[in-house]
Amino acid sequence: MAALLVCVEDFEAYARTHLPKYAFEYFSCGAQEQQTLEDNKDAFKRLRLLPRLMRDVSKRDLSTTILGQRISFPIAISPTAKHCLAHPDGEIATAKAASSMQTGMVVGSWSTKRLEDIAVASPHGLKWFQISILKDRSLLQHLIRRAEKAGCKGIVVTVDSVVFGKKYPLIRNKTGLPRPYKFENFVGCGYSDEELRYESTITKMKDETLTWRDIDWIKSVTSLPIILKGIMTAEDAHNAVLHKADAIIVSNHGGRLLDGVLATIDALPEIVQAVHGSDIEVYLDGGIRKGTDVLKALALGATAVFVGRPVLWGLAADGEAGVKKVLQILRDEFDIAMALSGCKTLKEITPELVERRQIFSSNL
């Protein structure tokens, strides 16, 4: 089976026909008319590559660092919830695959495996931990302490999701996690197992009063680097610098929140320019499906990219091995794109490699 899956789209097609309908719809759907969901992918097609030829690219180095932590290629795993809907091994399988590929994973708060179990299963893998701002600050601080103890090297704060976007398939389904799965990181925190099967519980936990002062508070309770996920404008990028964030993930939550916002690759250049001269690193997630997408994102200023849905499609196909194969496919495609563009190292991937013209947008 796996031999027939040769690109990310193959894995998505496999997941579409093999996952239960509610599980596939949960992972795949976007907000409302899904304009942003589709534009995240289509925006890459509006960019064309201008390769430099006749260069010696026989020895290529794909490795880089994110906040000083080395990964073997600039593709890491975004935080996504409910991995056990794709495979019984869930986030444990995902973490093992990331570790074996020598790249990083952001473990989501709303995972279906405990953070501590994920850490034990992949002791040498680079892991960051994602949090949302919760009304209960003592619970939030408790999660941060657990992340520190589990060996996580960064805290990713989701800043764009004070409420959930309206997703039509999920409204129609009204399906919680199938038993025995639940949001494991919140077991023993005052919620019943039944409550921890439903996103409505997450909604009750989230704090809609989120402001930049909360970033200051998070920095005051941990020495770990702080990465802000969900920045989409130069104004918010400036604020991230002012409040001493260590990194930004340019993200629109995979098109799952506010429909009609910019594709992430279109927002990226303005944000890179806004933080120019600071020490803050900029990453991108959203719409990455091919190695050339990675090349375009790096050319426009991203240090690395993070992928979400492709990893879930790999997990659905073959657990840990499926995630590893998806990462390998993206890595190999990126390597080929570098070679054919005349780049031996990531430093040679510059804005001159990418061009956008209106004609490219005529059919998109």
Instruction: Give, in spatial order, the strands making up the sheet with the most strands.
Output: 4-11-10-9-8-7-6-5
Morphology: globular
Structural class: alpha/beta
Query: What is the makeup of the main sheet?
Result: 8 strands, parallel
Amount of beta strand:
5-15%
Tell me the CATH topology: TIM Barrel
Radius of gyration, in Å, reads: 19 Å
What would you note in describing this structure?
With 364 residues, the chain is an alpha/beta fold. The protein has a single domain (2-347), classed as Aldolase class I (TIM Barrel, Alpha-Beta Barrel), CATH 3.20.20.70. The chain has helices at residues 8-18, 21-28, 35-45, 90-100, 115-121, 137-149, 168-173, 199-205, 212-221, 234-242, 264-274, 291-299, 309-341, and strands at 47-49, 64-66, 69-71, 75-77, 104-107, 126-131, 155-158, 226-231, 247-250, 281-285, 304-307, 354-356. The strands form three sheets. An eight-stranded parallel beta sheet has the order 4-11-10-9-8-7-6-5. Strands 1-12 form a two-stranded antiparallel sheet. β5, α5 and β6 (126-131) form a beta-alpha-beta unit. The longest helix has 33 residues, at 309-341. It is globular and about 65 Å long. It starts with 7 loop residues before the first helix and ends in an 8-residue tail after the last strand. The mean pLDDT is 96.
